[in-house]
Every structure is written in structure tokens, then in C-alpha cells.
Queue: 2 jobs
Job 1
Amino acid sequence: MSTKTTGKILVLVPTFVLLVWIQAWGASEGCLNCHGDGNKVKKQYLIDPVHYRNTAHAKIADANFGCRTCHDNLSDRHPGDGVAAKTTTRCTDCHADIQAEYSESSHAKNAGCGDCHNPHAAHGPTEISGHEMNRMCANCHENDNMIQKHAEWLPQAKLHIQMLPCVTCHTSSKNYVITMYIVKRKDGERYGDFQPATYRQLQQLAGGRDILSLVDRNGDGYISLAELRLFNTDNTHDLRLQGMMTPETVTHNFQVLGNRWDCSFCHASGPQAMQTSYLALPQPDGTLQRAAVEKGAVLDAMNGTPDFYMLGSTRNPILSWVGLFIIVGGLVMPIGHGTLRFLTRKNRTGKGH
Amino acid sequence: MSDQQQNNNMIYLQPTPVRIWHWLNALGIVTLCITGAQIRFPEYVNIFGSYRAAIRLHNTAGIVVCLSFSLWFFYYTMVAGTMAQLYFPKKEDLKYGILRQAIFYFFNYFRGKPNPHHTMPDNKFNPMQKSAYLAIMFVLVPLVSLTGILLMNVAPLRDLLIMIGGLKILAGLHFLLACSLCAFLFTHIYLATLGHTPFAHFIPMWTGWEKLEEEHDSGHEHDPVHGAKQVH
């Protein structure tokens, strides 16, 4: 190959790649000019650009043909040509493994991918909160109805449904972690339900600093038990930590698992199983990012996680020893006095003792 | 003729409502202790089959104890009207009575000396008992019951829980209070065996009647009604 030809290739290939990239990027952004604006398109065609831009789908689209990566029936004349967008790519084209897993679940007959997931706002399991996961489920499984059904066998059904993502019990995972979310009441309210705090609310409190600094005081990206205590006892804010037991790996094999009828599946695993926890913080794009928390923080007796306690599992070992010491203290009188009573029994012979 | 005077050697000490309360309370607290052990240490204690069964039984026993506590409170305040007289130590009790009773239990009892306190329906408890029962019935049992009721209703009473300091503090408090009640149980049962016979105090709590012991030596205090004295 001549030097001249090589030179042409070196110029043309990058130019082509750049043009494709610019076209793809331009296409996505161009589409979002209308589809990201509620005044220009109907609600069912509206895409939240902030959420979308951080999805894996957006990154794949940007790296290929923009929105046409999945909607390849669209032309440059859309919407003037009157052709509606079709999803010509199937979820299974990329997610065959999930499809195989899902097809074996009890859900497969009743719901397709799109019934739970919005492909324009699909995030990884650690990027969304347990509350959001449950909202997906509640689209079909109405909350009050679920509480009523679970209450037929499950003690504190409302509490369980409020404080657990459905997938914790209805999918299988080898391990579970505690994920903590920062929650707050509505502004100005002293009573009532807590809602996950938004990025903007936390940003205001952080005063321009990274919102992680609200908990991670020394800025090392790791939350120690001491930092958790400081956060929980800080009276200058109205934030609280809400813990949820979440699967370490989220799967799609939705089912009613036999071992979940037995409360001891979660409640008898003992303190050793409750060592790993994370703090999930909201990000500007609406997703969550996890920060690692010191091992065993949820077992702290007082201020590690004041509102998170799982009977049996998150018991504090020191408190257990104190309790045992108190009970043994109650045996001092019977044993000590009883021994002396036995040794001095002759003194009371015939005196009615 | 009053109940106290029906039999020369017998005294009607425990009226029916008190006995019902006591045995309901006893059954409830023992059940709470055992189920509570399974709830906190499920890896080591499995007496009631499933964890759910232990929780349901624990909750039921807790409600029984709360109801029996209400019966006790209602009876002594509204029916008998002797709550203050029986359960609140008098000035005399605080100044001398507690010390005198402690000296008996920890010293004179072993020497075969008589009990300085003589049980009567209107003065059932010795000064140490009064102080202990005051703390148990007016502090420990109400607190362990209240914390238990809150723990049974975490979702609807969340605001209240947060005012207290959170679920974890509440659960820890409930556990330590329950351990204290369990510790008291051992002492309570042991002290009940210190009558003139080991079962002398158990029988009246079942039948209502306590047998008074005849006087043994002239140096002992006399029962003003029967001319008999009781040794505990």
C-alpha cells in the first residue's frame, strides 16, 4: 500500500467515525428537543431527558445510531412523514440471559419487560431505591391489597411491605445487604410519612459541597460508624436514615419462594449476616449512588441506624450480654441465700422455717 | 363474721380478682420470657416451632399481661381501694422498715430469728416487698408493656417511635426491661419459699387462705386479731 493511500485511510476513517458519532448524538439530542418537552409531545411520548441520558440504553444509542438504534423505522422527516416510531429492537437482543431467567418465573405469563421497565429510564438495581422498585410492582399489585393478603400470615405486614423491596422476598439472591436511604418529611411538617430526600434538598443542606459530605464528614468516600452517629444525632437537619434489606444481586426469577414463609430465613440469620451496608445517595440525574458503610454498623445498639431493626438479626451483641448479666443477677439471691439457708437450716428447726 | 375471723388459724389474704390477676400475670410473663428468648436468639432457641408462632404467642401473652395489669390496677384502686396502703412505703418503712427487713433476710433469718413483718390483708407486704413491688408494678411492668405495645405497632406509631429516639433504642429498652423482669421472677419465686413451710405462700395465692403459724416463743410479736404470728 502506498504512502498516499495510507494517508487517505488515516484521514477518512476517523472522519467517518466522527460523522457517525455526531449524527448519532445529534439524532438523540434532536429527538429529545421534542420528546423531552411536555409542551411539544403528548404525555405517552414524553421522555425525561435527565433520567434518559444516564441510562445504559442512552449510552448504547449514542454509540450507534441514536434513537434509530432501537427505532430504525424513523426517517429524517419524522414526524412530518406521519410514520409512528416502532421499537424494532427487542429487549432479548441484548438481554437474552435475563429473558431466559424471567421466562421461568411466575411473572412471565402476566407481564412483559415494558410493563415494569421504562426503557427510557431503565437503571441498574443499585441505581434505584427500594421505594422505586416497589412502585413498579404497585402498578399491578395494589399496595393495600398486598398488605391485606400478606397480613393473612405475615406479622407486621404493613411494616414489611413498607420497609422491604418486593424483590427481596420474591427473587432469589445468595446474599443480602442493608441499603440505607436518606429520608425526610415534607418541608415544614413535623409529623407524617417520610419520603426519600431529593438531590436538590440535600444539595441545599450541603451548601455547595458534595452531598456525601452530609454523612461522610472526612470526605474519604467511606462512611464510618462514628460518622453515622454524628449524622443521626445532628439536630441541625431533619433527615433520617431508612434501612432496607436488599438483595446483593437482583435477579428476574420472580416467584413465591417456599423458604420465605419461614420468618427465620431473614430473622434467624444472626448478626454475622448483617454486616454489609451501604448508603444510597440521590444524584443530579435522578439515580442513586452507593457509598460503603463500615462493617456491622447496623448492629450498633444506639445510633448506627436508629430506625432500622430486624428482630433476631440485628441484635447488638453487647446488649445481649448486658441482658444475660441482669438475668444472672436475678439468680444471685436464690443461689446465694439458698445456699446459706441450707447451711443454717438447723437454726430454724422447729421454728416453722 | 369477717373472712379473717372465720377460722382461728386461717386468714383470707388473697381475694379472687388478685389471684386471677396473679396467675394470668405469671403465665403471661413466663410465656413472654421463653418466647422472647426465641425471638432474640432464634439460632439457639426454638421451642415453639416456627419464629412466627413465637412472635404470635409473644404478642398474645403481652396483651394478656396488659389486660391482667389493668385488672390489678382497677381492683386495687376502684374496688378494694387499698392500692396506696399496700404498695406505697410509709415514712416508717423508709426510715426503719426496709433496713429491719433486710437485716432479717440477710442475717437474722439464718439465725432462726422471727420475721419482723406480720402479714395481714391490709398490710400484706413487708417494707422491702412494698418498695420492690412499687418499682415493679409502677415502673417496670408499665414500661415493658408500653415498649411492647409500641413494638407491636411500629408502622402506625412511627412518629411516636421517632420521638423516643428510634426503633433500635425502643427494642433495646424493651429487651433490658424484660431481662430485669425475668431476673425479678427468680428472686420473687425464691422469696415465696421463705414462709413457715416452702409452700406456705404459694397456697394462699391459689386458695386465697393463708395458715397462720402458732406462736413459738413469748418474745415474738403477736397477731392482734388471732393471737398467732406468722413467720416468712
Note: Chain A touches chain B through 54 residues (CB under 8 Å).
Job 2
Amino acid sequence: MTMNHPATKNTLVANPIQPIQVSNKWAAHALTFLMVFGPGLIVMEADNDAGAVSTYVQAGAQYGTHLLWLLLLLLPICYFVQEMVVRLGIATGQGHAAMIYRRFGKWWGRFSLADLLLLNFLTLVTEFAAIALVLGKLGIDPRLGVPAAGLGLTALVMTGSYRRWERVVVFLCLLDVAWFAIAFRVHAGSREWLRHTVIPSVPASGFTAGWLFLVIAIVGTTIAPWQLFFQQSCVADKRLRFSDLRWARLDTFIGAVFTILVAGCMMLAGNAAFQRHWDFTDPAQMALQLGGIFGPFLKNAILLLMINAAVLGTTTISLSSAWAYGEVKGWPHSLQKPVREAPGFYAVYGFCVMAAAGLVLIPKAPLQLIILSVQVLAGLMLPSAIVFLQLLLNDKEVLGERFANRRWNNLVNWTIVVVLFVLSLLLAAQVAAPRLFPNS
Amino acid sequence: MTPTAEKDRLKRQANMAFTIVHPLDDAPEEKVDTEHLGPMRMTRTVRLCLFALRGYLLLMFGLLGFRVLQLAGIVRR
């Protein structure tokens, strides 16, 4: 006798290509989870991109382990925000941009899309700037390495197989396990980090404006607008079913935990510089200094992990742009489609990647201005994206009782929205009008 | 439950097979038709949120504009 697993009982099995049959309930659960696993880990780990590596390492280098508690606090926030996106994606089978466009009208739809595309593009430039920087430290000419990286990243999505892309990207995400070894190697034996993780502490320099803005930068780095668009589109492209919700939630939770742990390891790596009173302008420079003490293997590992972070950030951010643009334009937009069936979707992806790579190679490109613009635009984009998300999750016409927010969801999420509003406002105000904060 | 019924239940359970299908190989599910729903109903909460968002965006663009004017030397620092 054959019966469907409870997790798939709501779905019709029509000409399944490779159905797997198991007799053990737990094996069935494990296999179903492995099939659903992916979008949650990818969206979370890709958020530890080149900019995030720089922010976390800088936090460690400036304040030692004193900001580890913030990461612990951000863990549930990351999870709750992305879990809403998962529910919306599974219930509607549509991306976030399409939902904003349909439910809030053309003006808000176009505003969100334009803001997302611009912010994503500027962020991509920073990813390629990091790749160029690290390639230079590894002795590879960025004029060759950066276009090669761009071409490789474009080829990665053009295989016409979502699964192939997902497997490669999950593998790249798991490479970040190496950060655990780095943190273990460079961190002094004291258990202070554990105390600072669970108990918020005051840094030796006290609460300064610089400390406040680093806190805001960490929050802004950990929860980014593209993540909302990316995961919902990814869930829709993977065609996750209603019954997959609990596994998709687990995937998102595992992704959140892994990402926060990796971010903590980056801070511990920065703490090694803090303990030695080193000054550095970027993590690549810190890697060279650490290499002088711990050997070239550690130096090369950090440099390669920085490239990995930028590569993960590039493929996911470019995909979030391509999916969002395709959804709003009504074009075919799926990694499952070959290039000839979704030319617009792949063209947007390819254009984003190659244009950002090209911009980095222009001598004297205004990279500092671009980094500042990313911060300002992120300040504009995040609160609006989260407000739309929260309103959509209360839209019972779309979600019904089953997927809509419960009262406790709303309480948690509105608190997050208000906190993010205030923090984003402070950060963007500091960038736009630094004289408002004379001590920073 | 009698011992015989329990034994039957365990036997049935032992013979059960669970079929696992990858989401991409499964038949598409019927989702909510969002295309024909039209715009969201403007309840008081929705109106208030969008109003606050507009205010936030105006403030932010105002701040940015002020900074640009400062950098251009039109507004004195």
C-alpha cells in the first residue's frame, strides 16, 4: 500500500520524475526537509556579504567582543522578518515586488522596484570592489579577475536548472564554516566572549555616537531589503507547497542561526586586531596582519572567504533584482527556464552583474560615494519594505486565516518595524546631515 | 483498542510507504489568485501606515536635499 506523506497530502502527485519511497516516518520527514532546504540558508548566509564582513570585523576591531550580544538579539528578528516572507511566498506563489504592485497600486509598486534596483546595483558595486581589493592582495590582476568573476556568476544562473544553482550556492554558503576555525585559531582562550554574548556590556570607551552608529550599521547589515524580495521570489520559483511551510520555516531558522554564528566568528576575528591595537582600513588588510602571526594559510583563508562572501552577495542580490523586475513586467522569470524562454530575466541579471563589475574597473570610480549612497538608500528602503510586508501579512483576502499574521505575530513584528524605523532614520540622518551628530 | 486491533494497526503502519516528491517535480498547487483581487482595502490601519511612510520618505528626502545644498555651498554650514 502506498500513501502520501502527511507533509505532501495536500498536493497532487502528477507524473513525478523521481519520487522517493521510504517506509520510515522520520526518514520521510528528513528527506522532505532536505528537498525544501535551501532558500532560507541562502538568503541568510548571503547577507554575510562583503559589506557585512567589513562591518562585523570592524565591530570586533573597535569594541572587541562587546557587541556580540547584539547578534544574539538580531537572531529572532532575522527569523521573524524572513518567516513572514516565506508564508507570503508559499501562500501566493508570487514574488514580493508583484504583491506590492498588485495590492498597493502602481505608484508604490514602481517606487519599491526603483528603490530596490538602485540599492541592489550600488550594493553589487561594493561586492565587486571587495573582489577587486582581495584579488589585488592575492596577486591577481583585478582587470582580469573581476570580469572573470562576473562571467562565472552569470554562467552560474544560466543552466536552466534551479536545483543546480541552489546546490552550488548552498555549497558556497557551507564554506563559511571555515570562519569557525578562524575564530577558534585567532581568539585568545578567555571565556569573555560568552559573557558578552548573553549579557550586554558597555565598551571601555563608553556609549559614543560612533558606537551607536556601528550598532545601527550592524542592524542594517543583518536585515537588508533585498532579502525580503529574494526569499519570497526564491520560494515561489522553487514552487514550495502549502505543506512545505514547516520545513521552510526550519530552513529559515537554521539559516538565521548559522548566519549569526558566522557573524559572531567574524567579530572574534576582528577582536584579534582589537587585542593587538591594530589599525586597518578593510578586512583584507587585517588578514595580511593576522597572516604575519598565524601564517599564510590563515591569511589566504580570510581573503578567499571575503571573495566567497562577495560572490554569494552578488548572485543573490542580482537575482532579487531580476526576479522583481520580471514579476512587475510580467516577463517569464524562473531559473528553471532556459535563456531563450526568459531572455528579459537573464538579461537583467547579466546586466546588473557585468555593469557593476565594469564600474569597479573604471579608474577613480567614486566608490566612497557609492558606499554612502548604499547606506542612505538602505535607510529609505528597509522601513518601507517592512511596512508593506507587515500589511500584506495582515491581508486576509490574500492569505486567509491560515497564513495571515496572528495577534502575537503582529505584536512582535510591529515592534521590529518601529525599532527599524527609528534606527534607519538615525543612520540615514547621520549620513545625510553629519553635523546633527557632532560627536560621531 | 483491543490487542488484535493494535496488532493490525502496527502491521498496517509497518507496510506503509511514504512518497516524497521534490517541489519542482510535483504538480503545481492552486494558489490565491492575486491578479484579479485588485488593490488592498484601505482600512484605517493601512491608511495610517501609508501616511506615516509618506511622512518618513518626505523627511528623508528633505534631509538629503538639505545635505546636497550644504555640499553645493548654497546653504551655509
Note: Residues 35 and 41 of chain B are 15 Å apart (CA to CA).
